[in-house]
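User: Watch each token:
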Amino acid sequence: MRNSTIDLLKALASQIIVVHHLLLYTPMSPALQAKWPGLLGFIADEGRYVVQIFLVIAGFLAAQSLLGLLDKAREVAVWALFKKRFLRLAKPFWVAIAVAVMLGWLGGKIAMHSEVSDLPGFTQLLAHVFLLHDIVEVEALSAGVWYVAIDLQLYAVLVLMAWTSQRTGGLKLLEPQQGLLLLAVAMSVASLLVWNRNAEHDEWAWYFFGAYGLGVAAHWAQREGKVVWVSFLIVGLLGIALWIEWRERLLLTGVTALLLMNSARIESLVSVITQGPIRWLGDISYSVFLIHYGIAMFASSVVIALGLETFGAMLLAFLLTWVVSVAAGWVLYWGVERG
């Protein structure tokens, strides 16, 4: 059964990320921000925080899958699950990186700008193929690609937790499902209170596991009918984390987790909103997230080459780039991700 809350959140978050990057990296941005400094300035500065939505959703869906395996007493095959997740994430990612490199090279032939870079070397490409670009500290070939590597790391950690819970039988005190929840919550607490406060860890899963783990807790609460007390737990934990160190992104993390916990209750209402285009945007959100940077870099070169300067021309170029990015994401989804 589809979850309309997830569809809506993915659609909104992916489009905000596209606008955020267009405002950060394209020559159309200054003219538009001068016209609407409040709204567009806020998205340019704070839009990156919506990635927290994807992290919570990823934890929610991963828990749904792994708890289902534990319910049926099926073996948690670590390598098989990791490989499946890797290929699901990496196939559209590889295509998007190839497109970004090609469009960057073509754009550089039309007009140079600050985001145009040289063709990548073999080591840089190889690091991206295996989603190791941040760990080995090579320059990213597209904006936001760190998320793909982190998603894979987070899933691998959760799979290992499920395997451990199954093998130990919850230390003979808990069911494997409860053991998985306990491990995930413990790591979430450590992440929110300690690791997430140091940005030097942001290439590793433990920095982001607070958001991911809250997604895990949200799914467990929904399926076990423990929404009320888990809601208090999440609010209390985030309150402590924010008291220790204020981080605006954690507010969005908490709101997302609370919405997902109650998604079954609000399904009839949210499903009315998510019919048609919103559901479609939710389906293609990952592909749009991957492909839009290359489109934006090429569009920037075209805008510079054409010498566009007026507000009307910049607005049209911005909107056209946005539309083409969504269309390219749709093609990537149907051609690669969905297959």
